[in-house]
Amino acid sequence: MSETEPLDRLRHEVRRLEGGVVVAFSGGVDSAVLLKVCADELGDRVLAVTADSPSLPVHDRDDATKLARALGVHHRFVPTGELEDDRYRRNDTQRCYFCKHALFDTLAPIAAASGLRHLAFGANLDDDDDHRPGHRAALEFEVRAPLKDAGLRKDDVRVAARALGLDVWDKPASACLASRIPYGTAIDPAVLARVDAAESFLRRLGYRTCRLRHHDDVARLELAPEDLRDAVTRDREAIAKRLRELGWTHVAVDLRGYRSGSLNEGSKESRGEQREQGRGR
Description:
The chain has twelve helices and seven strands. The chain has two domains: 5-170, Rossmann fold, CATH 3.40.50.620; 177-259, GMP Synthetase, Chain A, domain 3 (2-Layer Sandwich), CATH 3.30.300. By secondary structure, the protein is of the alpha/beta class.
């Protein structure tokens, strides 16, 4: 398979959205590739919408603004209100469903008012291998997933991003700040802000791939394996000092390094879902 084939398939899927589309745009690589191809194929029949939520990291907000401007795409931030939903705040294993439901419930009337027929988001084929209850909300709202429909996996998306000239092609994977909070611990906007401040500090130190998992008074850091040595030697005192200033009593570095969705580890729902997917559901 040539490097251009996945991108060609994606262009074909996007052309099927000829009635126009509202793209749920997070500022990450997946939604950036989707938005770029939609802009190329559909012209001004595209609107990028980013959730204005306490769970959106500051650097993703900035990236979304810069990229939409660079692409010349109409772009809006809209409040999504998931924190007003007790079911979201209680943070069980279905949290992402309630988050995505709030997002798509907000986007649907925007699409209708704008005369755009479709909603789309940046799910790719590899997302089926993780615990993604938000995808159920996408099905309920008939939200299209052109990357997935075109058979693109994470590596394909990055190759496509580079071929499209997107600066974010090598941006580390990102996720909402609520993913740093263990299931069963209520989502608190103040904690989300602390996590965002801590991760912003780590990025300023040079740690491009980083997660701070919040465990009450313990901050557990997940970093790229090649960065672990610097974190516990060169930057140990600076990291401990700043995180204590932000309110954590203890600072721990996870020796296993960064793992996407590590708080899903041990989840019965996650294990069951993965078994079902393994049987070809």
